[in-house]
């Protein structure tokens, strides 16, 4: 399991140290107008980070004189567009958003990322503070010594629940994974017209939430180079996750991803919702859930607490015709100043300095739920693992088989034994193809 | 150079742009797909010749057969519904000639919507928890349905959405056919005292057969390549219950980087489309009058 903030890995420390020396040496020569008149293209995922940062696009263009063209797509479509561009070795895209935990190993092996370490060390603005990034996130974005992207946020699935409903029903929130079904049953009995527990059910999307169940249960995806989904812990995790959604989830949960979860919870139709920390601003939009929601990490299980913790990163294409100008956008968008602004809009900052910023602290203090959200994120940073799916180059395909196994049990088309055996067979074949 | 050669050269020069366009835009991608279907493409984009391995894998792949079955099931169901509803709508519009223009436009408006918009619209309407469809059902005392989230209902639901969108298109084709039918046949039927039902089944529909086969050809090409609506609404789920060959091939290529295998799937799908179109063309010749 790849821990997020275990003792600082030596090479990540070396990266940050070299960055700070380089920054000192080059900072005085830095000129924001060095690439004036150039045009760069940014392929963006239409998520809360991109939406928030692109509101300041004019400021970037005024500061640098660089024209920024933006192509925005939904996450899946963005990847498909990127894949086409990269396979053609085209320079159409200079900068793109990437999820190192998903495609990092694959894109790095294909040589699609520009190494950003030389940029961060030799061509950063004086106040860029590269060493201020969470070392774990820098490590998660580093493959074979290549820094594939700079961290934009920290995120993971959290349990959002309705304090008013729990109080009204006289039920305590679950403090252990083994109690979550019991609690959901009590809620369902008390409030039959509400969804007691909701989480992702859509095949490609559910490994993000399921992984937390697996790891808290003490399971892992791989052991001794083979798929380990059929371990006792793996089977228990599949059983629990699928039965929670089957018995207490919303109708049609097999098609649920973040969008449906957010809508359902915001509308006051679900009591417990296990979904991304990134959705916090969307969930709180309109203010209906500000006063009656608490947020915690998923309760620990037999294997302890190992929340899923990932982060988006900003990368430069290896085939970019303007990598130097592209770097200017990358460092502007990931600067402490910008991340401080974005934090006030609910984008969890990947720098400790931003998290302790007085403005951010004041924003958190305005609502107890914001403080709970931040506390849960700190737990993610301390104890989290970035393992979502199999730690192999074909990680995206591995997620498909995990999702299919959970879905088959959820829909009742297979037993847990049959589903995990079928998944293991496909996953071992996938591992063998590496 | 004699006149004949000069004319040939002129003709060649004039037709060259269209020939080049056809080769570049149609023949090249098709040939490239055939070529790539014989390659093993790694997750990092490396290619090597792999013979017919992708086709052998396809024959052994349960998901391929599942995709083929869903493609055919969706095709037959949608085409049947669209032909029946389209013909009925065309007959209605043909008889109600005094129907105000805006009502006629309303009838044919769904197919003017981009499929992505139609997909999003129906996704919201059919949401089992928050959608209007279940709200209406429960208000009428009927049980709610899982629509697109049920493995058993997903294909019929997709067929209904597609029928809602494309019935007007079929109706317009059939309406054109109705307007071209010879009035003398109807006059003779009237003199012979044929009932309206008899006239419909013994005269109108048989005479409309060539038009209906034309509509079948046009819809068949789209229905066998069914993609956008599924991609927007279910992405092939739940549990692969709506993963058509086209969706499966797309996911193999653009989500899992298996372009060789995706190429083999697409060539197979192209062969299926070509086969159906050729068969329908023969049928059209057979029913021509």
Automatic annotation (TrEMBL), chain B:
Membrane topology: Multi-pass membrane protein
Family to which the UniProt record says this protein belongs: Belongs to the binding-protein-dependent transport system permease family.
Swiss-Prot/TrEMBL GO biological process terms: transmembrane transport
Family annotation (PANTHER family): GLUCOSE IMPORT SYSTEM PERMEASE PROTEIN GLCT, TREHALOSE TRANSPORT SYSTEM PERMEASE PROTEIN SUGA
Protein name per UniProt: Sugar ABC transporter permease
Subcellular location(s) of the protein: Cell membrane
Taxonomic source organism: Chelativorans petroleitrophicus
Residues covered by the ABC transmembrane type-1 domain: 68-278
Keywords: Membrane, Transmembrane, Transmembrane helix, Transport
Parts of the chain that traverse the membrane: 12-38, 72-94, 106-125, 153-178, 199-218, 259-280
One Gene Ontology cellular component: plasma membrane
């Amino acid at each position: 399991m790849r821990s997020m903030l275990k003792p600082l890995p030596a090479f990540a420390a070396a990266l940050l140290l070299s960055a700070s020396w380089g920054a000192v040496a080059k900072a005085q020569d830095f000129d924001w107008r060095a690439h004036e008149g150039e045009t760069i293209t940014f392929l963006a995922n239409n998520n809360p980070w991109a939406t928030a940062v692109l509101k300041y696009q004019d400021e970037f263009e005024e500061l640098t004189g660089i024209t920024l063209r933006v192509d925005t797509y939904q996450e899946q479509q963005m990847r498909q567009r990127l894949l086409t561009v990269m396979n053609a070795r085209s320079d159409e895209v200079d900068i793109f958003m990437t999820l190192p935990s998903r495609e990092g190993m694959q894109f790095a092996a294909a040589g699609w990322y520009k190494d950003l370490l030389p940029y961060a060390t030799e061509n950063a603005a004086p106040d860029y503070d590269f060493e201020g990034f969470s070392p774990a996130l820098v490590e998660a974005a580093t493959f074979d010594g290549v820094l594939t992207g700079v961290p934009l946020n920290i995120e993971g699935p959290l349990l959002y629940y309705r304090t008013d409903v729990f109080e009204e029903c006289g039920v305590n929130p679950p403090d252990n994974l083994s109690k979550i079904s019991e609690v959901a049953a009590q809620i369902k009995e008390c409030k039959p017209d509400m969804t007691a527990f909701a989480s992702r059910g859509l095949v490609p999307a559910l490994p993000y939430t399921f992984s937390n169940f697996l790891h808290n249960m003490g399971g892992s995806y791989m052991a001794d180079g083979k798929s380990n989904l059929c371990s006792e812990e793996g089977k228990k995790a599949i059983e629990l996750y699928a039965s929670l959604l089957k018995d207490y989830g919303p109708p049609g949960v097999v098609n649920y991803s973040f969008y449906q979860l957010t809508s359902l919870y915001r509308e006051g139709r679900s009591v417990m919702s296990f979904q991304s920390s990134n959705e916090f601003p969307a969930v709180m939009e309109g203010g209906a859930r500000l006063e009656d929601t608490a947020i915690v990490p998923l309760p620990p299980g037999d294997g302890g607490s190992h929340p899923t913790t990932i982060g988006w990163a900003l990368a430069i294409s290896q085939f970019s015709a303007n990598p130097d100008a592209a770097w200017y956008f990358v460092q502007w968008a990931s600067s402490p100043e910008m991340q401080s602004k974005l934090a006030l809009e609910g984008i969890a900052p990947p720098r400790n300095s931003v998290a302790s910023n007085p403005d951010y602290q004041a924003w958190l203090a305005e609502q107890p739920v914001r403080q709970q959200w931040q506390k849960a994120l700190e737990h993610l940073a301390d104890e989290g693992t970035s393992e979502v799916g199999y730690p192999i180059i074909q990680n995206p395909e591995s997620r498909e088989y995990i999702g299919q196994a959970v879905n088959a049990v959820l829909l009742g088309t297979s037993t847990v034994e049959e589903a995990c055996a079928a998944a293991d067979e496909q996953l071992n074949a996938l591992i063998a193809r590496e | 150079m004699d006149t004949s050669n000069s004319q040939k050269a002129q003709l060649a020069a004039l037709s060259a742009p269209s020939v080049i366009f056809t080769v570049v835009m149609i023949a090249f991608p098709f040939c490239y797909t055939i070529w790539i279907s014989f390659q093993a493409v790694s997750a990092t984009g490396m290619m090597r010749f792999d013979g017919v391995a992708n086709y052998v894998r396809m024959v052994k792949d349960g998901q391929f057969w599942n995709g083929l079955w869903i493609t055919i099931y969706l095709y037959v169901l949608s085409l049947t519904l669209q032909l029946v509803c389209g013909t009925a709508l065309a007959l209605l519009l043909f008889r109600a000639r005094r129907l105000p223009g805006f009502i006629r436009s309303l009838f044919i408006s769904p197919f003017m919507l981009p499929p992505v918009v139609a997909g999003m619209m129906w996704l919201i309407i059919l949401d089992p928890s928050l959608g209007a469809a279940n709200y209406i059902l429960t208000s009428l005392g009927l049980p709610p349905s899982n629509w697109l989230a049920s493995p058993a209902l997903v294909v019929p639901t997709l067929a209904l959405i597609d029928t809602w969108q494309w019935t007007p298109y079929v109706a317009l084709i059939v309406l054109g056919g109705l307007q071209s039918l010879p009035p003398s046949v109807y006059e003779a039927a009237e003199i012979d005292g044929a009932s309206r039902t008899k006239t419909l089944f013994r005269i109108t529909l048989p005479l409309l057969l060539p038009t209906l086969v034309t509509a079948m050809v046009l819809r068949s090409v789209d229905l066998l390549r069914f993609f956008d609506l599924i991609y927007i609404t279910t992405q092939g789920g739940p549990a692969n219950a709506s993963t058509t060959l086209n969706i499966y091939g797309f996911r193999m290529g653009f989500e899992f980087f298996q372009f060789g295998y995706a190429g083999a799937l697409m060539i197979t799908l192209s062969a299926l489309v070509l086969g159906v179109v050729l068969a329908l063309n023969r049928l059209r010749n057979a029913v021509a009058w």
